[in-house]
Amino acid sequence: MKQLPFLARLDATDTAQLKILCEQLLDRKPLSGAKGFGVSDEIAVLIAAQACLLVLKLDLALYDDLSAIIVFPDAFGVRQQHVDEAGVVHEWDEELAGEAVEQGGAVVLSWHDVALQQVPGATHNIVIHEFAHKIDMGRGAANGCPPCLPVLHEPALLNDWAAVFSAAYQDFCAQVDQMEERLPPDFDPDRAEDAKLYEQLAASLPLDPYASRDPAEFFAVASEAFFVDPEPLAEGYPQVYRKLTAYYRQNPLDRGRCGQ
Ligand SMILES: [Zn+2]
Predict the structure, then answer these.
(1) CATH among 3.40.50.740, 3.40.720.10, 1.10.10.10, 3.40.390.10 for 5-255
(2) How many whole angstroms from 170 Cα to the centroid of ligand 1?
(3) Ligand 1 midpoint to CA 135 (Å)
């Protein structure tokens, strides 16, 4: 776990608490491999530790809706469905690195993709992303507004949550639109040169462009950034950063940058 700077920066008390939560999570929720993937104890602890970081100062009850954690060796295919404005149902297969299934469903992860992010300096984290969705799903379908815990959260926390997040979301979508206008007309993400250009342009944004997909993704991507790479988020959207600090009851920026 020490290879993950955002876990290595926790103080001794928090590390001890994280350990307890990991044991409880692995005790309560089945974690298994799919497609022949063998989940070692080390992998189980690594995934559980990142899942528990989100609820370190909250309550594991936020994962009551989680049925299991399933780990595939690599990206897995999922049948997606979308009903457009005309009522036409569109279906397609999508390869995913992670998925959080709502209404008592599992968190499904691709180990190949998780492992790529288990290095110092990584700015993405699928485990944190999917578990943020799972917390968000505690009030039904994910919408970017997670449930409050009456004992731990100020009652006013959610009052202006939607206003703060939707202003940031709108601004971010506009920034992504502006970025995309700078791409060549024949832009092809599968072409190395274009992919590099996209990466360079996206790096100037406070969050990964995927956050512009919808408000639920904005919350999951912002949560991911909050724990793993908080500086650009805190600078770009200080109000969102403050809300997440109040929600998760942690301030990753205060933990310093030792080890990274
Ligand atoms: Zn997502």
Answers:
(1) 3.40.390.10
(2) 18
(3) 12
**Ligand 1 midpoint to CA 12 (Å):** 31
Close Cβ partners of 215 (under 8 Å, ≥ 6 residues apart):
143, 144, 165, 166, 169
Instruction: Quickly tell me which residue has 């709108």 as its tokens.
Output: 170
Global confidence as pTM? 0.93
pLDDT tens for each residue of 80-127: 888 888 999 999 888 999 999 988 899 999 999 999 998 888 889 999
Q: Could you give the C-alpha distances from 140 to 105, 146, 151, 181, 185, in angstroms and in order?
A: 12, 10, 21, 36, 40
Q: How far is the CA of 106 from the centre of ligand 1 (A)?
A: 14
Going from the Cα of 221 to the center of ligand 1, the distance in angstroms, rounded, reads 7
